[in-house]
Amino acid sequence: MKKLFTFLILSLIINAAFAREVRDSLIFKNDNVIVGEIKALDKGVVTIETDYSDSDFQIEWQEVKEVYSKQNYLITLMSGERHNGSLWTYDPAHVTLHLTTGDSLKVRIEDIVYFKTYENDFWSRLSASIDFSYSFTKANNYTQSGIRSSLGYVASSWSASAGYNLIRSNQDDVEPTRREDANLNYKKFLPHDFYVPANYAFLSNTEQLIDVRSTFSAGLGKYLIHTNDSYFGIETGISYLNEVYTSDDPSKNSMEAYFGAELNLYDVGDLTLLTKGIVFPGITEGGRWRIDYSLDTKYDLPWDLYFKVGFTLNFDNQPVEGAGKADYVLQTGVGWEL
Question: What is the Cα–Cα distance from 157 to 154, expressed in whole angstroms?
Answer without folding.
Answer: 8
